[in-house]
Specification:
By secondary structure, this protein is mainly α. Helix content is 75%, strand content 0%. The two termini are 27 Å apart.
Length: 289
Amino acid sequence: MNTAKRLWSLGTGRFGILVVILVALTATVSLVWTPFDPGAVDARARWTDPSWPHVLGTDNTGRDIASLLMAGARTTVVVALGAGIVASVLGIALAALGALAARWVREGVAVLVDILIAFPVLIIAMMISAVWGGSLAVVIWAVGIGFGVNIARVTRPELRRVLHSDFVLAGRANGLSTWQNLTRHLLPNVAPVFIVQLSWGMAVAVLAEAGLSYLGFGAPVTQPSWGVLLSDLQAYIAVHPLTVVWPGLAITLTVLGLNLLGDALREAADPTLAERTPAARVHVPGVVA
């Protein structure tokens, strides 16, 4: 509860929470209601300016942009959560092996991580899509693998550091197994680092989905997606620039909210940061802004 209060007391934390809630709520509501059918084409309503009932206007086929953005939020949430789960499982597994296993296993994991981290997420996604074809599953696995490796690389040295702490040694002396030490002592103490990496991974998942869908490697054109919408409208940016602003703004706010939420979670969960004076906590967001 104290962590939750500290998180809400931070301006960046409040902003991140509100953005995440807004995106999740929009995605949920779009499952049962949107102002118009996102796939409905109305040639008579082409390029309608923002007005009632098309509050954000329409595109070149007469589709309601607000409805497309709401439906596209579902794709964003699915990709962010899916990539976060894959990255968490892979990252924690590699970090645990790299910190707790036998020496030859630790060295092998370190080499594997160094090899995989050399490949950018988008390159991994394109390589996978070349074999399996473009889809949301490609984006989820590519981002999950890419940032799972990042999580492992950052979390492993933290696990090694905590492994030699007095309370871990005391746990061993009291008969705790390696798994019990991992779940009771090691993972909770590296949680702040893990949370920040995970939030970045989910933010990159949103960007990767939009970028890959824009290039034709992500969501199929028949599925509502902010990236697909950008791809459809970019040819008309000189004539109808406002229509491109809405999906771009949605992507930007979502990525910014996830990044700021991760930073605020780290500050709220880390005891060394939480013990700073109130003046210092207020000062930092002000400087960032």
